[in-house]
TrEMBL record:
Protein name: Phosphate ABC transporter, ATP-binding protein
Coiled-coil boundaries: none
GO MF, one example: ATP hydrolysis activity
GO cellular component terms listed in the entry, alphabetical order: membrane
ABC transporter domain: residues covered: 9-251
PANTHER family according to UniProt: ABC TRANSPORTER I FAMILY MEMBER 17
Amino acid sequence: MEHPGAPKMRTKDVSVYYGDKKAIDQVTIDIPAEYVTAFIGPSGCGKSTFLRTLNRMNDTIPSARVEGTIELDGDDVYASSMDVVQLRARVGMVFQKPNPFPKSIYDNVAYGPSIHGLAPTKADLDQIVEKSLQRAGLWNEVKDRLQESGTALSGGQQQRLCIARAIAVDPEVILMDEPCSALDPIATAKIEELIDELQGRYAIVIVTHSMQQAARVSQRTAFFHLGEMVEYGPTDAIFTTPQEERTKDYITGRYG
Ligand SMILES: Nc1ncnc2c1ncn2[C@@H]1O[C@H](COP(=O)(O)OP(=O)(O)O)[C@@H](O)[C@H]1O
Ligand SMILES: [Mg+2]
């Protein structure tokens, strides 16, 4: 365990290539444990690519190559000794499109804790499922229908189920890649409320193309442009007193 106040994750000079094409250029950033960090920037600037380096999701893309260092509590995420399955439990991920397993609501949440051996008995597992669904703000809506399919829920409920699934394995970091982009405004507001409640318990990194959303949910914002991280700081400061010309242009809507 690192000393209090140490960043949860740190990247140093991280570059990502798809074949010969450089998609991320030498990004160095500390991800705090206690805050929500937003990644903003125009489409195609590399937000998702960089987010995926944090739990080695890019490993699943054959042409992708990562340079530089990424640490989680001081451990090298790309070390050959790193157990990637374990890493992805510690650094969970929620995607743009809700992707529940075609299984029951209960099994969606119970699967992770089962394979990671977190629940010795059925009663323990029941408790993890209930607690995770509660934390994800979904328990009251599903407690009487836990055996129904997760895919039968509404889009917003499915996304909260995916968040419950990530929470169930007791993660340290939750990565969210535009988690509301497939949702209506009411479902979006619920997810934003939920992110607010989860802040402090988990380090959260959210990619969003909505500056309003970044301003509402995050305490730290990083602005990306053409594969570079142009500027990073307290969210208020990024939106009110940006230091870089390119950040100014983006937040005033000159390109988007
Ligand atoms: N799987 C992939 N293979 C090749 N190029 C990719 C892949 N994913 C993303 N890219 C390219 O990398 C760049 C950054 O993309 P991405 O990380 O998806 O940006 P953002 O999330 O900011 O919209 C883009 O030029 C995109 O076309
Ligand atoms: Mg993206």
